[in-house]
Sequence to fold (80 residues):
Amino acid sequence: MFGLSELAIILVVVAAVLAVKKLPELTRSAGKSARILKSEARAARDADEPGTPRVIPGETVGREDTGTGNDTGTGTGPRG
Fold:
């Protein structure tokens, strides 16, 4: 009969054979999780240092594009 160590080896081999199709997806998922965890840890560490500005990647908005949303968008100045 099989001992505990032989049974464990057989189970590992069977799991590896059955998981070959899912292995790339699992490693991709593990990589994503690690990146998310790393960025969250960095954000928590940066929250402790309030003097440093946060840079968020995205599109740049010019000064003429900013406002309260009450303007007509014509750029003629305040409404009277």
Q: What stands out?
A: The radius of gyration is 27 Å. Residues 23-47 form the longest helix (25 residues).
